[in-house]
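Ticket #4471: structure output looks truncated?

Reporter: J.K.
Steps to reproduce: submitted the chain below (135 residues) through the standard prediction queue, then opened the result file.
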Amino acid sequence: MTWEQTKAARRAAGECILCRRPLAPGNKNFCPECRDRNNEYNRTYIRENWEKVKKMQYDRAKKLQREGKCTCCGKDRGNSGSELFCPKCLERNRQYESSRAESKKARYYTLRAAGLCTVCRKPSKKAVCDECRKK
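Returned output as attached by the reporter:
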């Protein structure tokens, strides 16, 4: 039995693919202990090899874009009207960007109402204090 067949059999049985313990809720591959160990390994690897990981992500996105696939999920872009995303990922990205813009706008107006500089958060009568404006 190959490793892929073993993983598929363990997934079908509801077991961790590494140690055969019951799966963590909402996880289709690992038990809580293996999931935590795997996440810690990934964080450490990314931290230590950031430039290499960044280049791999860039290369993957460019390859998917050339093939006409979504750079986020790898599925066919279809008629999304985007050069990067499928319709589902495009909508998710738009929602994320609009919520991000809303939170930035809310933060700006909250700081202004409190009489603080929107950059350094020191008391100021203007949106950006003189110190920050000089920078």
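Triage note (M.O.): checked the attachment and the full token line is present. The mean pLDDT is 92.
Status: closed, working as intended.
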